[in-house]
Design goal:
By secondary structure, the protein is an alpha+beta fold. It contains four helices and three strands.
């Protein structure tokens, strides 16, 4: 049995969410650990699960979670890497 694609899963763990949406891990974990009421977050025992469709809506309104470019990436993009 193969693992489902992240784009097909309804709920994701935080690491999968960071990978799928290309987020800054530091900013995303800070958001999860804040005391804000987040519409996309589901708690299951001690785990935090992210509802993919709800997070996609939230992310469309909050693009500041996007991972920034690293210093070397600009040169690599110019070279076609």
């Amino acid at each position: 049995m193969t693992k489902p694609l992240l784009t097909e899963k309804e709920t994701l763990n935080p690491r999968e969410t960071i990978e799928l949406f290309g987020l800054s891990g530091r900013k995303f974990y800070a958001l999860l650990n804040s005391n804000q009421e987040l519409c996309f977050l589901a708690h299951f025992r001690s785990r935090k699960l992210i509802i993919r469709d709800e997070f996609a809506k939230y992310y469309a309104e909050h693009p500041e979670l996007e991972r920034g470019e690293f210093r070397g990436n600009k040169k690599r993009k110019e070279k076609g890497f």
